[in-house]
Amino acid sequence: MTLPRKTPAQFGFRMPAEWEPHEATWLGWPHKAADWPGKLRTIYWVYGEIVRKLIPGEKVNILVNSELHEERATRFLTRAEVNLAYVDFFRVPTNRGWTRDFGPIFVKRDKPKPEVAIARFRFNAWARYPDWKKDDQVPVRLARRLGCRLLPIKHGNREIVLEGGSIDVNGCGTLITSEECLLDPKVQVRNPGFERRDYEEVLKRSLGVTHVLWLGRGIAGDDTHGHVDDVCRFVGPKTVVLCQEKNSRDVNYRPLAENRERLEGLCLEDGSKLEVVPLPMPAPLFFEGCRLPASYANFYISNDAVLVPTFNDPHDRVALGILSDLFKDRPVIGIHAVDLVWGFGTLHCLTQQQPAVRAW
Asked: Per the residue annotation, which of 148, 172, 181, 349 is the catalytic one?
């Protein structure tokens, strides 16, 4: 079901912050071996650990391609001692498993009647890979399965490509993104010809934000070309964590320092200053000579825990401590992600939250 004419914001919809109550977390069970060369079975076990830490705080909805795919997932989750009473499988075909980017971007409204809907953005595999048509249809298929509204997002008559990992919100009206991802005119261009004002208009109309903060560049090794969820994340209405590289010889040093300088001069939707908490970077990781986007900022906030990627690095404990100080209401749990990041993403890239219709 679609809604014509009026924009989601005009209907009263907004994108909630990730720490607001969830109905469920969505995952796509991994199946593309090329994403994790030689490690796919290992990745199954990592998924099992992720699901085990998400429940019983919320349901976990898992996309599978077929009955056989579901049986394989069930077998591994059972062996990982996951309580399957909290898991639902949805047979919806996918190209890959990066649910944050192709999965539904949920919005909600509280009045006149509480409702959760899906903002229908398009997906084209980060304007980089040829296999994306199944992934692009996931929000449409899930809107039908869930019986929720599908809100078309257009700029004029043009549909808009946007990935969930390219944005982060505080739920109060401010969104953060990066110029490298959305505004580069030559590399991985999602919406050719789009300028800053075009994106800001779309984001305000579709996600109910009033204020957009722009960072510069993302981190090295990120094949999405600058997703903000590897760099800077809201951890509260007025606070972000921002990755910081202390080694001045590292390729990430200057871009991350420039991002901090930007944020120091920016304000939130109410005009107040943004609190910026530095988050360390792990030591560089490589696969076949290619830098991998290892980052503690790719954490996921669930109802009962904050899941943080760890990398067998001395900074693991520091990052977990910083986030534990910021999230007093739920435990901060490390998930071993050295294998996950071979696929050029970790916990936040794999997950997508579905807001609860009513606050608990």
From this structure: 349
